[in-house]
Each structure stands twice: as structure tokens, then as C-alpha cells.
Amino acid sequence: MAGKPSAGAFSQALAEAQARQAVTLAAALRYPTPLDARLLHLLGPGGSARLDWLTGADQGGDADAGWRTWVDETVVSWAACLLASPALAVDAHHLAGRGQAGDVTRLTRPGDHEQDAAPSLRHPDLLEPVAALHRPLLLDLLHKENAALG
Predict the structure, then answer these.
(1) What is the full DSSP assignment across 65-87?
(2) Going by C-beta distance under 8 Å and a sequence separation of 6 or more, which residues neighbour residue 44?
(3) Is position 117 within any domain?
(4) By the 8 A CB rule, do 137 and 81 touch?
(5) What residues have CB less than 8 Å from 90, skipping those under 6 apart?
(6) Could you report the per-residue pLDDT of 33-79, keeping only the tens digit for each?
(7) What range defines the domain where residue 48 resides?
């Protein structure tokens, strides 16, 4: 795995696309129905405090930190799991369905360009602390749904 990301706007766009696909798919799994999504808007997620602590993010002086209250730790953890494992992303995409998650090809079949654009985005040592937070819940969800289909 390469260490340094490729430079340029194209690489930056590829990295962002991969992250967006992972978060979109994770959110579709976490909030599968319109009612779930409405409840999220009503109640709000838990915020980023534990993720900030885990990753060592410094919140001091961030005048625009209001977005942190809308971070869903489970979605972030599941997105990290999906970035780390294209095979898991394929299973998750089948469960969520194409209608909710859209095209996630850069996530499920990352090519050389995707790998070169953002090597740290998929680096297991960097993803593991966040992915480990809620991986059992994701695996349980996928296992139960696969068992119900099989």
C-alpha cells in the first residue's frame, strides 16, 4: 500500500468520493426507512465527543464546531469498516439496496486510482480504532439479514 497520496484535484476528488460513498452506505444501513431518517432529524445523533477523544482531535478554538453535534458515531465507525473491506462493502450494499445508497463502485471495487488517491483513507492502522467501535453491530446486522435471505 502506498504511503503518500497522489497530488492534484483529481486525487482529492477521488478521496472525497470514496469517503462520501462509505458514509452514504453506512447511513443507509443505520437509517433504512424514511421514519428512521425523520427520527434522526428530530432527535439528532450522539455527537463526536468519543471520536474526538479516540483520534486525539483538538476541539479548542474551533468556532465552527456546531457540526460536531450531528456526528453519528455508529455511521462513522461503519463507514470506516466499509472503507477497510471492499467485500464487506459489497455485502452492505446488497443489504441497503441500490436505491438508498446509490453507486458505491469506488468503495466496493477500488482501483489503483482510488488506492493512490487516498492510501490513508483505507489504511488499517488508521481505521481500526474507529472501525472497532461498532464493527460487531454491523457484522451482526449483515449476518442476520444474510441468514434471513438464505
Answers:
(1) GGGGGG--HHHHHHHHHHHH-HH
(2) 69, 70
(3) yes
(4) no
(5) 108
(6) 888 878 877 776 777 777 887 777 766 656 566 667 778 899 999 99
(7) 9-58+66-149
